[in-house]
Design a protein that fits this description.
about 190 residues; Rna Polymerase Sigma Factor, Chain: A; Arc Repressor Mutant, subunit A; 9 helices
Length: about 190
């Protein structure tokens, strides 16, 4: 998603029309990111509203020579993480059960035999259910890595964490999830 400097310049001047345009550009992206984290429509809308307020209040600090999307994403991710800390709300999944499940499923279940679509869907559902048990930070690194497609370096920048910490968190989160899934699968 590319935002022109013109709309940002207008936003920096607190042009309400420019903010409406900007927010419409990011509306679906932001809702999906928030919903994937909290798995609740109303909470996702509340978080999105808070993100918009933070963007509005901090747009004057944005360096117009830098890309807007990473700055916006950092605000959104931090708002999601803060929501989790504040609300102590612990029922989260990564997505709504769409095709995006494939990347994480393949890593956790690899190597994968050619299985029927039904088994793939069941595995996706088990992954979503077991993600709820991960720490918020681990869920977020998985969202950023596998659903946002960010590199380790980009995740480190968004979370303001050292690169080694991000790699460790992703590795631990995958192992914890794989262990949970192994236990579930052993009952079958």
């Amino acid at each position: 998603m590319h935002v022109g400097t013109g709309i940002i310049t207008r936003c920096k001047k607190h042009d309400k029309t420019a903010f409406v345009e900007l927010f419409k550009m990011y509306e679906k992206y932001l809702f999906k990111l928030c919903y994937n984290y909290v798995r609740n429509e109303q909470d996702a809308l509340d978080i999105a509203q808070e993100v918009y307020i933070k963007v509005f209040n901090n747009i004057s600090k944005f360096d117009i020579t830098m890309p807007f999307h990473p700055w916006f994403r950092t605000i959104a991710v931090n708002t999601c993480l803060n929501f989790k800390r504040i609300q102590k709300y612990d029922s989260v999944s990564l997505n709504s059960g769409n095709e995006d499940d494939k990347a994480l499923e393949e890593i956790i279940a690899a190597p994968k035999d050619v299985e029927s679509e039904v088994l793939d869907n069941e595995l996706g559902q088990m992954i979503r259910e077991n993600l709820e048990g991960l720490k918020p930070k681990h869920r977020m690194v998985l969202i950023l890595r596998y659903y946002e497609g960010l590199s380790y370096e980009e995740i480190a920048a968004v979370l303001r964490e050292p690169l080694g910490t991000v790699k460790t968190d992703i590795h631990r989160a995958r192992n914890i999830l794989k262990e949970k899934l192994t236990k579930v699968m052993s009952y079958f």
